[in-house]
Design goal:
60% of the residues lie in helices and 10% in strands. By secondary structure, it is mainly α.
Length: 181
């Protein structure tokens, strides 16, 4: 890259005049990065793109209400909600059968299903456990403790499902037996 191209490149990046860019490059032995850092250190770096100096002085001053557009309560709420959804999507609920992962659901979907119909999700989870499905969580810093609790619940369901038939004996006394006593 020749000196003229370097001066133009520095002008594009820093929005300084041709003379300022040329002087900065000469001081820095024609090193573009050093010249850019030098201008930044001197506080002469402008970040307004290709606007000329004339345009800088004629730009109208925006009222505070206009400057803060997008920084209101709703915008902050939406940013926070987006961050929560991103974090929830990084956590997965794994549905397994015989050690093989059959389905992975983002935690945001799981929570949405729970909010929509908590009873249906709860019943479906218990029925799935009776049919040998197990649940695990992936993506949390504490998944081991959560997964251990889910394994314990699965073992409990297995114990309940494998229990033999329960026989209840009820003694019926007929009227004759009652009168004899």
């Amino acid at each position: 890259m020749d000196h003229l191209e370097m001066v133009e490149k520095l002008r594009e990046k820093s929005n300084v005049s041709y003379e300022e860019a040329s002087a900065a490059l000469e001081k820095c032995n024609w090193d573009l990065l050093d010249a850019l850092l030098m201008l930044e250190g001197e506080g002469r770096l402008n970040s307004e793109g290709d606007a000329s100096k004339q345009e800088k002085y004629t730009t109208r001053v925006q009222p505070k209400a206009e400057k803060k557009a997008g920084h209101g309560g709703l915008a902050v709420l939406m940013k926070g909600l987006a961050q929560v959804v991103r974090r929830l999507n990084s956590v997965q609920l794994l549905i397994k059968k015989n050690g093989e992962v059959r389905l992975e659901l983002p935690m945001s979907v799981v929570l949405l299903l729970i909010v929509i119909s908590i009873w249906a999700v709860g019943i479906a989870a218990v029925v799935a456990m009776f049919f040998g499905y197990r649940f695990a969580v992936k993506g949390l810093s504490f998944d081991d403790s959560v997964n251990a609790a889910m394994d314990k619940a699965g073992s409990f369901v297995d114990d309940v499902a494998k229990a033999g038939p329960t026989v209840v004996i009820i003694e019926n006394k007929t009227e004759q037996e009652n009168s004899e006593e």
